[in-house]
Amino acid sequence: MRNILGGLTRELTILSQRKYITATIFIIVCTTSIFATLISHEVRNLQNYMGYIAENGKSALFHEEFINQDIAFRLSRAFSKQAASGVNGEEKAKLLCEHIEKVGAISGFNLVARTIVNLEGTLQTRNPDCEAWSRDVPALPVVNQTETAASSKYTFSNYTGYTFNNTRYYIDLAHNYIYINHLVNTFDYAFSNWLVADKDGVNIVRSAHTITIDDNALEDLIHGENIVSHIYTDGYTRQNIISMITPVFLGGKIKGLLITDINIHDLATSFVTPDRPLLWKFLSLYVTDNTTGGNIIFHEPVVKSRDAINYQDDMTQYYTLHGKLDAIYVVIANIWLILLYVLTTWLLVRYARQQFIRQKSLSRDNVTDAMTGLYNRKVITGELNQKIQSLVERNIPVTVIAIDSDGLKRINDTLGHHMGDKAIQSLGLALAQSIRKSDYGIRLGGDEFCLILIDNNLARSRDVITRVQGYLQTIDTEKMVAFSWGSYQMHAGDTLEVAMLKADELLYQHKRSKYEDRK
Question: Is 447 tagged catalytic?
Answer without folding.
Answer: yes
